[in-house]
Structures are given as structure tokens and as C-alpha cells.
Here is the input.
Amino acid sequence: MSDEASPPPPDGTPPPAPTQSSGSPSGFLKAVVGKRVVVRLVSGVDYRGVLQCLDGYMNIAMEQTEEYVNGVVTNRYGDAFIRGNNVLYISAGEPI
Amino acid sequence: MAEVSGEIQEPFDLIRLSLSERVVVKLRGDRQLSGVLHAYDGHMNLIMSDVEETIMIVDPVPEGVKPSIRVAKRHIEMLYVRGDGVILVSPPQRE
Amino acid sequence: MSFFGFETSLPQHQDTGQNQAFAEEDVAVYTWGDASYDTLGDALQEAGDDLNDETFGSGPVGKDFDFSGTFDNTRQPKPEPAPSQNIPSGLSNGNNAWTSNAATSVLPKHVHPSGSAAAPSVFSRIDPLLAGRTEPKQVAAAVHPPVDAPFMIAGDYASQPRTMAEIEADMKAAAMQQQQLAQQRERARILEQQQMLAQQQQQQQRLQEEERMRQEQQEKLASIERERLLQLERQARSDPLWAIRQAMMEQKIGNQGHVHERNQSIPSEASPMSRNRQPMIPVLPSQMPHAAPAQQQMMLQELLYHQQQQQQFLEQQLHAQQHSEKSAEVMADAQRRIQEAEILEAKHRRRVSKIQSMARYNDLMTQSDKDFITRVQVAQLVTSDPYADDFYAQVYASIKQQRNASEINLLKLGSAGASTQGNPNQRGPHRRENAIQRMQAQVERLVNNMKSRELSKEAGAPHGPLANVLGKTSGRSYKAAPRQLLQIAIASPESAKAHPVKEHEAEKAPEHIPSHGNQAPPPFSRAEALLIIERLFTNILDMEQLRRNKPLAEEQVAIAAWNEKQQALLDQIWQGLRVAGNLHETNPHPFIALIAPLKGKRFIGRLGRDLTDNQKVMALSVIVTLIDQVDVIRNAAILDSVEDSQDRRFVERQAYAFQEHVINQGLQLSPASRTLRVYNSLIEFMLENGPVFSRVMRTRPGLTLLEHFFAEAALLKHGLQGPDGEVISAPPEDIAKWDKLYDRLFDVLLPLWTIMFPSSRILPAFPPDSMEIIQVSLVTDGFDQPVWRFLAGFALEGTVEQHSRLVTQLRAKVMGTLKMAQRLEEGKAKARKIRNVDLFLNALGLSSSQIPLQ
Here is the structure.
């Protein structure tokens, strides 16, 4: 299950390049709170949804969450708590 | 004291609001739990009751063949989940 | 002082000059106590070492310390030919000493068993008790009474460690016993010699006479042999040794016969000559008093030994013959030397026996013990502070510091200059200070860490009061343990308010339509409702804690403060419930939304004594006014199903929780506030909802709620029994209002009654008159029962005219139920159906038995 193998999600436009994040990781994270994000886990599974909040352990609370495995929606959760140690990255899913 | 608000300020609020509610827990090893959450801690160690565990078993198949997934289920009255196996927790979806 | 033979004088590096030189080296210098010599060393006892040699030996360490096995390790102590008591005899009897013991001393370990042959006489001389006829046990008792079993020679020594005195006593006793046995064995032979031997030993002069006689004998022998020797010499000049041996052999044979004669004539001569033959006797196993397997070898050795001894004797004879003229002075000299050698030999033997006895316990230290000591020693060598682990050193140091006031400042730990104030030459204390300082700093750090951790836990940490409720799980042993990856300020409320979801939904509901809240936005998501409830739970826990800590009634100030606190908490909870406010701003109402989750209903159940009656009435008003927003009413349709499902069970639980926790517990009014007026208005609120009311009445939870209010109102209308037995009636105006309200309710409900029965909603889905419908009706009978009950109660309040209207309205329902009952077998199910109907009919003064059925 490599990252390259998973095609971009069918429903979304490719995430735009972060333009005006404040230049630090935590600045970026503050900026994406409340926005649509893609959270990739180390296992390769993606979660797309609205980032409610996150903490220093990279624990993440999301809403309207869709789970993508190999680009296919496999689950939907209203809210989801993702344990931080599984998170590979968080990317913005809409302009910040 | 501030008024009691319902805003989720940190991720653990999402878990906290699910106390004594039925939650879905996604675990490592293609396992999923559905049960009533009774307690949790910062490691996401969980105490759950009335749990249904669902195990997705991907049977090994030759290359190219679509793998078939078997689902095994079992019921557990009371369960302690060690936090390091937890991937995702989803609060109840009712309404 | 020599201790175990080790050199105790250490290399002299203790003088100050050298010490300073060491200070530069990176080598641990053990100078404990040299800063202030406490003169403890002087207190060492240097005297009393005279016996060390006897105890530990003085000569070079030989095979004596080889305990591994070359030594005979049987428990039996070696037969000791010459115990200490025998030495004087050997000394006094010069001939014996010279002839037999001298030879014996050549092979110290190979003991000559016959050496004890002379012993009886010795004992008889020293102690009359020890004379030949004395029983061995008595001897032992006399010698060493405390020893219980002094004659255990082989195998049964007491297993516990023994003292040196005991060992010695045993050895003595063993030797004595052996002597006694030998004595018994030889008694017959010795008997005739005994007296003369005793005389001989007592009189030194006799010795010399004997010596002279012996010399004469030797001269005779010499004269006899001289000729033969001369011949032999001539014969074997090419091989003198062979010739000598040859001569010895011949001489031996010749001598034996000769000596026999001498023995008879001069009994005292027995010693040298007879001893040469006597060895043959004890060698025989049958005659060995305690023949052990190991002694087989000994016998062989002894055979060899005796041959050798004979040779020696012959050589001596030869020598004597050759140098008879010098023999007198040579003898004297030799005797002296032999005596010295004898003393040494005796000492040596005693030592060997002692060591052998002790050696039985010399393996008590196990390998792990040794390893432990090795570790300690190695640790001492490796450590930078050799005294760190030395408890006594540390205690000593601290005591010393306490005593020395000037040093107290030195050891003010943590102060940077402390160590430099000390004398730099005193390396020991300096090092200790450093070590203690380091230790102190470490402990301080540990304590601080722990404190800060506790603080951060209290200050709240992500999981607040739940931290460690399951026990401590801290530790970084596992890679998946939560790790703080970066510092993120918790999302501020402002950012959370800029919530896309909320914005979306706000857009979806463009305008507020107060009358029909269906399109009003929800106050918060279900998740938020749950979170609010959790926080309210925290508040109520705080309050319960506060109540447990209520100050005593006398402390008025504290009481006031406590009241204030409690009121603040109560207000906060009330605010949190969001009962007050615009009824139609959101859909559902915030309060209704809060009680939607099971947890919310349970939470209300805990507020029974925390809410004022006024607040409860307000909450009830909100519920009855907006009853169609209440989750159990909205979801009640699923209850009209006979199929079991998870959803149904969920709503069942919710419906139960609503009635039980919200209505019966949390919002139950106190008796003082239960007035007819309150229930009048609550029922009125329900009625005013018109279409909603009829819909609500078709739900089980809605009907239950109305029944609850109706029952309370009916009770209050008829009046309550007061504390003094009098009936407290409701105010007349309230009763009048109630009557009007009842009529109104009757009219509204009359057309609804039939459909209010769950069975009426469920059964039409099934084919009539089938077995299936009867089976299902058995289930719905359970659902119907509350309706029948309510109907009965409702009917009781009605007039006769209203009764007849009710009967007309419900005739079909009654008849249908009774018909169905008729088709059932006698039993519980049938009885229940009839009982349900009779609930209603009995209220009207009728009975199902009166109804004729075709």
C-alpha cells in the first residue's frame, strides 16, 4: 500500500499549495483548523474532512470524515478522533 | 466560571463526549470495535462494555485475483483496550 | 603481624608527599581516614600472636592446604600415632624415639599404625585411669565430658560446625581409643613386658644401661657380621650397593632369630627389634580395628614403608657396627636432633589433622557468594568514589561532620564554594563532598521533576480528572506511547466559531420561523450536546464534593462562603441546561437537545435536588410546549413495531430514561409545589399544541407523560391528606379550571382513544383472523395495558354521560379484544387480555363477563 499507488480522491480537486501559512508547522496547523484537510496515516489510509482541532501529540479531531483506502471511500464518520501516533501528514484540502 | 460551552477545543473532547455512549474504535490489525465507552486516558486506553469486535481477515489469494475479505465477529461483555493499538475513535452517530 | 601468611605491611604511599603526587594521577587513592587519624589502628591488638604458628603454620605452605582431594577426605581423622601425650614418652624413651619415630618422621603422612604400640604404657604412666584395663568410654568422659559422642570415629560426627576445642578433643579421644584397641589386641603380649617397660621409662639411668647393653649387643653383632661383610665387600666391589643390599637381606634374616632370643632375655629390647616385625600384624585386615577402603592403599604403603624401615634399621646397624666407637656421642647428638624433629613433626601432624577437620567446612561459601564479593571488590575498584556504597563510611562521615562545627559550612551542599573551602590536601573529604553534592543535586532534580509532573497533571492535562484513573501508564517503553510532537495552542473559541459546518447550516436556515421550529437551526450538534453534558457532569461532581465539605453550622463566615460557592455552581448548571431563552430560536430547543442523548436524560435525573421547583416547572413547560421536538416522541414510531431491533431497543431505553430520569426524578416537583394549578397549566400547554397533541397522543412516551400529569392532577383535585389528617383541597378556582380542562381534554381525546392503543396501530398490518395476528396481539397486549389503565383513570373522572360516550367510542375495541381472547386457550395470555379490558370496564362499573359474545 504505497503512497504513490493511491490515486487522488475522485471527489476533490488537488490540494492547493499552501500560500500564506505563517511559515512554521504550528502556524500551518493553526491555519488549517476549521478547514478541509487530508490526513494520511502511516498505513497509507487517508481521512478527508474538516479539521476540528488537534493537539501537540498530533491527535486529531475531524468531522464529516471520509475514509479512503486506495482512493476508494470505505467509511464515513460524523466525527473522528485519530490517535496522533498514526498520523503521517496533514495536508490542506482547500485554500487556507 | 466560564459558561459551559459545547465547543470542542481539543481532540480529547471528542472522546470525552462519547463517555457512556456507543463508539466505533478502529484498531491496528484490521479490527474494529463497537461498544459503550466507559473510561479513557491520555494513551487512549479504553474501557468498553457490550463490545462487538469485527475482524477483517484477508485470505491470501494468488496475485491478480481480487482478495476476498472474511469478517469474523465476536461479542465481549467488558473490554480493556490498550491505547497503542487505537487508530481512530468515532463517537455515536445516532440521529 | 603475620596473618594467614600474608605480608601485611602495605607499600608506603601514605606519606603526604606521595599523596600529593597521587592527587595528580587519575587513580583512585584509598586514603580513608588519613585526614584525621583516629588512632583506631593503634587499638589493634598486636600481642598474643605467639600461637599463630601453631594455628596457622609457619613453614612454607605446602600440600597441607590442598583440600581438593589428594588428602584422605574421609571423615575419619587420620589415625594419629603420636598424639601430644605421646611425645614426652617418645622423648623420655630415647631408644624408641630414635629407632621407630625417627624412621616414622621421614614419611609424616604415612602413619605407622603400630606406633601406638607403646602408648598403653605411656597412658598407664601419665594417668592411672588410662591404664590398660580402663574402659575407653570412661577415658573419654574424663578427658572431655561435654562431648556427647567422643568415639564416633567414622561417619557420624555431628553435622553442626564444631569448635576447635571439640575438634581437638575428638582427635585426642580418637587417638586414645585407637591406642586402647591396640592395647587390648596386644595385651597378652604386652602384659609380661609392661612392668619392665614402666620401670625402664621411669628410670633414666636404665636407659643408659640399656644403651650400653645394646651397644654390647651391637658389638657382638658387629663382630659376627664383620667377617661376612669383609667377604661381601671383597665379592662385590664392582657393585657395592648391590652387595650392601645383599648383606642387609642376609642380616635381616640372621637378626630376627637373634632378636627373639634377646627379647626374652631383655624385654625392654622389644621396641627396636619387635617393631620391625610388628607392622606385619596390623596390616592384616582382619586385625584392623576399623578397616576402611582407603586403608587398603595404606596397607600397601605400609608394607613398602616397613621394608624401607627395615633397610634403614639395617643401615643403622651397619653404621653402628662400623662406627661403634663413636656411637655414644653421635647418639646423643642424634637423639637431640631427633627430639627436635619429633616436636616439629608432632606439631605438624596436629596441624594437619586440625586443618583436615576444619576443611570439612571450608566449602561453605558458595560460588554466588564469591561472585558477590568479587563484584563488590570490582565495584570498589571501578567506582570514582569508593566510599559511596560504604554505609559505615557515610555514617561515619556524617557523624564527624556534625561534630566538627567548622565543617558544617563545608558541607552546605549546593553552594558552589563549599568544596573549595576545604583543605585541598584532604582528598578524601573533598571527594565525599563532591559525591554528596552530586547525590543531593540529583535528588533535588528528581523531586522537582516529580512535583512539576504532579502540577501539570492537576493543571490539566488533556484528560483532566481522568488522568491515571486506570493506573499509571507512563513510560516511554513503547514506541506508540503518546509523544508531544510540537507545541500547539489549543484552538481558540474564535477559530472554532468560524466553523464551516455551522456556517453551512446557518445558510441552510435563512430565516427563523418561530411558530414552526422545524426550520430553525439546531443549537448545537449532538457532539456538542454530549460535551456540554460532560462538562455539566463535572460541575455536578464539583458540587457533590462541595456538599461533602460543608462547614459546620457555627462557622457563619465559612457557611456564607460555602453557600455562595454552591449557588454559583447551581447557577452555572442551570445556565448550562439552557432552559431559559427564546423557545423557538433553535430547533430543537437547546434544553431539548441536551436531554436527547441518553446521557443527558440521566444527567437530568441527578438534578432532582439541585433544581428549584420553579426551575423544574420551567423545564417541564419547555418539554410539554415543544414536546414534538423531544427525541423520544419523534422516534416513537419505531416503538410501534413488534420486531426486535437495535434501533427499537435504543428508543425503548430512551423512552424509559425520559419518563424515569427526566420526569419522575429530575423534574419531579417537591410536594409543596405540586399544585393543581401547575398540572392544569402543563396539560393546557400540551392541549394548545392542537395537531401536535393528537400526534403525541399516538406515541407511548407522549401518552405516558400525559398520564403522569393527569394522575397528579386528579390526586390533587380530590385533595391531599395533610400532616394533621385533614384533607387539603385545591383552591376552588383551580378545581373549576380543572373541570373545564377535563371536559376539553375529553373531547380532544375521545376520537383518539382507538388509535391511542398501540395494537390498533400495529395489528392492521396483519391479515385478520389469522393465527399470526393473535400471536402479535399477545405482544401488543403488553403495549396496550398502559392505555387501558390511563383510560380507566380518565374515565373515573368523567360523568355518566361521558362514560356512555366512551363506551360507544370504544365498543369495537373492547369487543375485538374479547373476541380474540375467546380464541385463546385458557392461560395467562387470555387472562391478560380480559384483565386489560376489565381495567376500563370496571372503572365504568361494568365487567367483561356481562358482555355477551357471539
